[in-house]
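Exam revision sheet. Question 4 asks you to relate a sequence to its structure. Input first:
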Amino acid sequence: MEKTKETAANIGASAKSGLEKTKANVQEKTEKMTAHNPLEKELATQKKDERVAQAELDKQAARNHNAAASAGNTLGQGRHHTTGTGGNPNATGYGTGGTHR
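Answer key, structure tokens:
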């Protein structure tokens, strides 16, 4: 079951990476069409290359995270408990003690 979840998460990471790469390519083409000199065109290409590289790094980081989470769950570790505090690590998860209406 955990392997299936990991695979699904990896597919999502790959899809997101592909989307980001496509967006980078489209933006590069748009910037090249509106560029007025070769330097602007070169800058557009460099920006695209950086965005594509970042998308690939993000995908690899997500895959590593998914593998670690899957490995932890198979050992009975790494299970996350949500307190409903909105992601605030300093919150206790307890109410203020006020009157509820």
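Marking note for examiners. Residues 38-74 form the longest helix (37 residues).
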